[in-house]
Structure formats: structure tokens, C-alpha cells
Fold:
Amino acid sequence: MSSAIRSACVADSPVTARDQSGPRACARAARLWRVHPAAARAVPIFVGMWSCAQASGEPQTRSIRDDVERLAIRHRTEHYAISGTVSDARLADYGRLLEYIYEEYARGFAELLDGNRNGTEQRQNKRSGRRGNDRSRSGRSPRGGSKDRGNRGAAKKTTNGDEGRFRVVIFARKAEYDEFGAAYFGRFSEHTSGMFVPSVDLLLISDADGPGETSGVLFHEAFHQFLRKHVPFAPIWLNEGLATYYGTARPTGKGLVFNEPLQGFFRIVRDAESSRKLLPLDQLVLMSREAFYNQSLVAGESFTRRSLAYAEAYTLTLYLLGDRDGRSHLQDYIRALALAESAAEAIEVTKSRFPKRVCDAMKRPWMKVVNRN
Structure:
């Protein structure tokens, strides 16, 4: 499995630092806040410095929500405000790549958000009392533009004038990425090279493996950021299934190409099916975040429950996108989810669109796709 896929994780919200008490931990965090070496000079990650109020043996908990507004932004694009410790040239390169990725997401996702507009308008008009609303629930066309008004999933207004822009931090060295992660998330960031923190719409990326690997991580993790803007309460299976799918994309002069499916995930699903350890699809689509990211081994197998969940979510997404009826079903599902105003409502949408009888009927054609790869 590539490091880009191993990196796929979404931090719970709010995020806190765990097991980071005492003077040594405070010193590490303070150094991180001050400067990082990049391109033979000191580059600030944050404006100002966090002073550790507690340097005792008592456990500390600190939320990144309190500190993220002070990110020292070094590069801005139409949709992104980027900080980090890589060189200016590399930062600009990744800014261009992120904009390309955003446009490709918007192009591919527009049909899913804007299709069947009449039904969407009826529900939106009922809530707002307005007529003729032809935008998604976020108040913004999926093609871009900063027209968001108080949507939970939208990029947040910031104190540094970057309203509407997604925030990204790109670290030159893995040690920097790990130290930042340890200061806020405890051990959650270990064994990853990128993650999205939904509570503050923040993307964290390690560039230690170079542009090739980093590009794959960006395609995957930036999709979480994009999807949250338009479908704030997307269930975890859909979130990770689509993000993993987009993580396999290769940019070409004619757009994205998806011709390198992740064979390792197909093998996991086949092995789980042969040993009768497969997760029933009606359970997969309702999995909680905690259950999806469970790192314990599947009994009698060499893969974890997390790997199995990723494998099923990715291959199910691939099947739905490639099948005419499946794609239509997925489109209707995403449109309904885009109107959900809470996680509980999103669960009810999932139950209505993927009841057991529908999931049971999908298993055979889904496994045909798995067995062909």
C-alpha cells in the first residue's frame, strides 16, 4: 500500500494534544511555534508564540482552534492560504497544484451537486423563503468563488484576511510534521504523511518524500477539505471512499486520469470474502469514525479493520461510479446529503438510500468488479 494511502486519516474534532505535559513537551512546542529552518533561513509557522501555562506533571489539553488564526501565511492562491517550511518555489508549485486539484474536483463534482436542481430548489426555497436558488447548500457554486455565508463546512473567516481560503501547512521534514502533530494530536499523526483537521479546515502535509508522493497525498487529503465545504456531514465511508479514489488520480493535459486502481485494496476485499470476514455493506455505510479507523487486526487475517474498511469503501465507490445505475444512485445520495443539516440527518439519509435490501442487491455486482481487478 502506498504511503499516500497509509496517510489517509481525518482527525476527530475538536483536536487536542495528549500526553504532552511537562517542561520538555512545552519546549518542543514553543520551538515549533517560533521558527523552522527552510531554504537556509528561518520561516515562522505562527505569528507570535504560545507560552506553556502549565509546565507541571499535570496532563495538558490544547485545541488547535485557539491557535490556527495565527498561521504565518506565505503564499496565497484563489482558494488556499498556505504556510509551511518548504522553499518559496516549492510552496508556489504546490499552490498551483492545489488550484488545479480544486478545479478538477469542482468540474467532476458539479454534476453531483447541481443535478436534479428542481428537487433541491424546492427544499432550499422551503427553508429560506426565497425563489430561484440554483446554488448548493453551501451558498456557493461548486466551480468556486467566495460566496459562503456561515456554513459549517465552508472555509472559515480568519483574522489575517483569508476569508474563504482553505488553510494548508506543508512541512519540509517529517520530523517537523510529527512534532507539530504531537503538540496538538498526541500520537494521532504517527505513520501518516498528511491529514485534514475538519474542526479548523486545516490541511497538514509532509513533503519529506518529495513531490511525487506529496502530490498523491494532496489529491487525497485536499478532497476531504473540498467535500466538507459542499457536503459537511458526509458519512465516513463516502468521505474516505471518494478521497481514496481521487488519491489515485494522475493529472494530464486533458484532465485527471484514473487508470491505476489500488490492487492491494482489491486483494483485501477478496481475502475477506473468502474467509467470510467481509463487512456487510449495510454496516459499512453506517460505520462511525471510531469503528472505521479501528487499527486492530481482523481475526485470523494479516490486515486491520481499518484497512478492510478503506478497501471496501474504495472498491464500493469505484463500483458505483463505474455502473450506470450505481452512479445515478450515488448522485441522488450525495445531493440528499448536501442538504443534511446535522450528522443525525445524514445518517437518516444513508439509511433511506442504502437499506439492507439495496446493499444486499449491490453485493454481487460489486464483487464482480473486485474480482476483475
The mean pLDDT is 76. The chain has 14 helices and nine strands.
